[in-house]
Prior knowledge:
Elements lengths: L8 E4 L1 H9 L2 H14 L8 E2 L8 E5 L2 E7 H6 L18 E9 L7
Parallel strand pairs: 1-5
Antiparallel strand pairs: 2-3, 3-4, 4-5
The structure holds zinc ion (ZN).
The site of zinc ion has 7 residues, from helix 3.
Amino acid sequence: MSEASQIYEIIATETFDKMFGKLEKDMKDRISKKISKLVENPYSVSETLTGNLKHFRKLRIGDIRLLFRICEECKTKGHTSISPCKVCSNEMNKHIILGNIDWRGKIYQG
Ligand SMILES: [Zn+2]
């Protein structure tokens, strides 16, 4: 492939790690596979969210929604003003921050 493909680097938050740890092995495997696609082109496999979660994108995996942000968007869309991003203070645009796992819509309540 070409010069255009630049792999993103993944950083998981504690919240994500905690939620991920609760999942069964099958689902962990499915999510890991999806994440390996995500690093190639996070925009094409995800959708933006709205409202107070608009600094996140979501990726569907069965009943689960993986919420993440891309540091490029932290900056270009001003998302750090909604929710500070600890990662992208410097030149770290090609980073994906795995924020949380929404299981059966829990995150969207309240
Ligand atoms: Zn960021």
